[in-house]
Amino acid sequence: GGVHVGGKAVVSTQSTGGTNGWPAPLLKDVKLSESKARELYLSAIKIVRDIYQKALLVHADLSEFNILFNDGEIKIIDVSQAVEHDHPSALEFLRKDCSNITDFFKKFGVPVMSVKALFNFVTDKSITDDNIEHYLNTAEEIALQSQDLAEDTVDAEVFKKSYIPRVLDDVKNFEQDLSKVKAGEDNEVLYREVIGLSHNMRSGSTQPRLLEEINDEGNVDEGASDSENECSDENMEVDDQGEEEMDQEQTDKLLHNTSHKKLSKEENKDRKKLFKSAKAENRTHKTPKHLKKARDKKYKSKK
Questions:
Q1: Would you call 170 a catalytic residue per the annotation?
Q2: H helical segments located in 1-60
Q3: Which of 46, 102, 114, 226 has the fewest CB atoms within 10 Å, i.e. the most exposed one?
């Protein structure tokens, strides 16, 4: 048993592998060169991302103590305690998994992403097969430039203890966060990747924020960006009429809440489109009921 992604088993419910009758060693017991450690780090974080994005799970107890090393590759084991990606504590567990992976590979001199950056990599829905390598190369360059900076250490500790909304309904003060983003003070706005928002939070995300920021530094014309947002807004309309009415009711309730009265007419319009887009996006990543029932039945049978 285990988790298969792309037809390949990346996670096993039991210890497997090895050669000539000997079990494969745990990653914690393997001596790694810096180059091999870097290779395995990239492999590990891609597996964590695939588990989250494709299997819709979070391992919830990931570390070098339950990763096997066999034939130069790694396989994650002990997945019996994994939780659904929409479990109330899933993001907290994922944050801990990211922290453990980061701490382990950092020991080998690997230019690892910060825990926050790794968390964003795992949860960002706009990372695709076409841009993932560009994303990882960019992240590595940033990591090399910011290694051992004191402010990054402080930022990491704050991130580990911060509340991260999983859906827009859980965001406590959206307009305040929007103002922070506009002012460039957005380090505390931690939910954009999880929910699927663009860098400026005015629409659904069409490319990773890390790459958006690189493009912004390259003097991307603001007018062109606004035009692209308008075009993407047009494509945000939900085809299913019943779902659209549900979104309308939900967004109207939020827009008429007293905490949103300070928003301008334009910002309210953007907020309405934003909710509609995010709702549509969340539906595409929602775990189907028949899969949830099957998994619940499987876990109950193991107990």
A1: no
A2: 34-53
A3: 226
| The predicted structure's pLDDT at residue 185 | 87
CA dihedral 9, 11, 17, 23 (to 10 degrees): 180
Integer Cα distance of 63 and 100 in angstroms: 5
Please give the backbone phi and psi of residue 195, each rounded to the nearest 5 degrees, phi first: -85, -30
Tens digit of each residue's pLDDT (9 = 90 or more) over 188-204 = 899 999 999 988 898 99
Q: How confident is the model at residue 214 (pLDDT cuts 50, 70, 90)?
A: confident
- For residue 202, which phi and psi values (nearest 5 degrees)? -100, -5
Q: Mean pLDDT across the stretch 158-184?
A: 91
| Phi, psi (degrees; rounded to nearest 5) at 262 | -75, -10
- DSSP state, residue 25: P
Select which of 29, 50, 61, 177 is catalytic.
61
Q: With CA atoms as reference, report the closest residue to 37 among 121, 138, 112, 148.
A: 112
Q: Residue 25, by phi and psi: left (phi above 0), alpha (psi -120 to 50) or beta?
A: beta
Q: Record the tokens describing residue 207, joined without a space.
A: 């490319």
More confident residue, 48 or 9: 48
3-state DSSP percent of the chain in helix, strand and coil, to 5: 55, 10, 35
Separation between Cα atoms, residue 74 and residue 71, nearest integer Å: 8
Q: What angle do CA 274, 278, 279 make, to 5 degrees?
A: 115
- Asked if 78 is an active-site residue, the reply is yes
Distance in angstroms (rounded) separating the CA atoms of residues 17 and 74: 10
**CA 53, CA 287: separation in Å to the nearest integer?**
11
- Tokens 């004191």, residue? 150
> Does pTM surpass 0.85?
no
d(CA 186, CA 177): 7
Beta-carbon count within 10 A of 276 CB: 21
